[in-house]
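Render GNAT family N-acetyltransferase in 3D.
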Amino acid sequence: MSLAIRPTTMEDAAAVAAVHRATAAIPGGIARRPDEITDAYIARILGEALADGVGLVAVAEGGVVIGEIHAVRIPVRLFSHVLSDLTVAVHPDWRGRGVGSALFQALFAAARAMDPAIVRVELNAGAGNAGALRLYERLGFRVEGRLERRGRFPDGTFEDDIAMGLILSPSPLRGRV
């Protein structure tokens, strides 16, 4: 598999929206439903990542965007070392092929290079999304809490969210954090 990871640009909006919509349409994809992936939502997440965060796309041969990850720095100085509001979406045709892991590794590298450096990355995952939870734990995230009944499905049932965090090891070029 030939795969490239590169920073997201505003020109990627349509491709990112397509990946998010396809991912939202499958169980365990992302929290938003396909109809919630609007142009305004995509413009907001790309703009926030470009302004003070990390936004990356995974691109397959032929330039097709097959995955996207973004997170933003918390805009309060006390928490400015934290990337939060993280979302990763991998097109269903590409799941289970290392795309998500590659996106996370690139996000970690980009976070370490930010100034001031990012020390912590945090995310939430649905308690019923065992595959995502396994991936995040394999990447080094630790469970830090449970938010009871945080999500509600269209049928009215609830799901807890699992709060997870990762402390980035210091970059060898940047000294100790």
